Fold this protein.
Amino acid sequence: LCLLGKDSGPCDKFVPKWFFNAADGTCGRFYYGGCHGNKNRFDKLEECEERCAKKMDPCVLPPVPGPCSGTNVRFYWESNGRQCKRFNYGGCLGNGNRFETVQECQARCSTSGSKSEQLNVRATRPPPVFQPTSQTPQPQLHLEIIFLMPCLGEVCLMSVDPGTCHDYNYRFYFNYGSRRCEAFIYTGCGGNDNRFERVDRKFNFRNF
């Protein structure tokens, strides 16, 4: 539910709720119409933070000053340059990529790169999954790969989409919640752009 977009629903009430923004790791306010919508909807800020925000790796999030007007000096981890940088925090909300000192920032994030450079692959065969168009179970090979670098852009926030056809093609998608590339079966047509044949240029897992 943390990867779902904000959805006010089709009704016309104005019920204040909270939602999780996976793009920057923050919880924000919105007005819920009162019907339908999705599960990315919380009654309290604390509930949103507990369910979603605290599960994010703060070191890959962008700096967020927050909506308040304070000028509190804080530090954030800049993952591309692999260094801690200074920014002004407004004093409320924001995300976890916010530290009071450079030392605290470095202690939390500077070692994360060495861990992510170790590629871990785990291959398992889960129980057969029955397809609606067939009476025989179709085994799925599940490959879970820890991604080497953070995935950037809107494509990384898209949910896995197998498409609408009936082929069985192994592809990879970036799971924003777990920060990992995971395998899925693409049916051959439709779907979205969060679909890759490889994890990166060095590793081609089609041979597994």
Notes: Helices lie at 45-51, 102-109, 112-116.
